[in-house]
Specification:
By secondary structure, the chain is an all-alpha fold. It has one domain. About 70% of the residues lie in helices and about 0% in strands. Helix 2 runs antiparallel to helix 3 and helix 3 packs across helix 4. It is globular.
């Protein structure tokens, strides 16, 4: 597994921390474990994919919302001990 540079430098979890382990868990069929490793990506990536399939583009407004949600998730996951992986 690759080491997250943000986590290595700060000791904090970035919004993408757990993504590699989530993908491995999904490949092994462990959906519940994949969800708990990174709930934002688990739910957010399929939603963005469906949006793209419907619209065939990601507007700047959608990208800004995704960025704000990602930053908020990064803050919340470091403040709530149960969400730290």
């Amino acid at each position: 597994m690759l080491i997250c540079p943000f986590h290595w430098l700060t000791g904090l979890n970035c919004p993408l921390c757990g993504a590699q382990r989530m993908i491995v868990a999904l490949c092994h069929g462990s959906v519940a474990e994949a969800f708990w490793l990174n709930p934002l990506l688990f739910v957010g990536l399929p939603l963005l994919g469906l949006w793209w399939l419907r619209k065939r583009e990601i507007s700047s407004r959608v990208a800004l919302v995704a960025l704000c949600v990602s930053v908020a998730w990064g803050i919340v996951r470091n403040m709530v001990p149960a969400l730290q992986i």
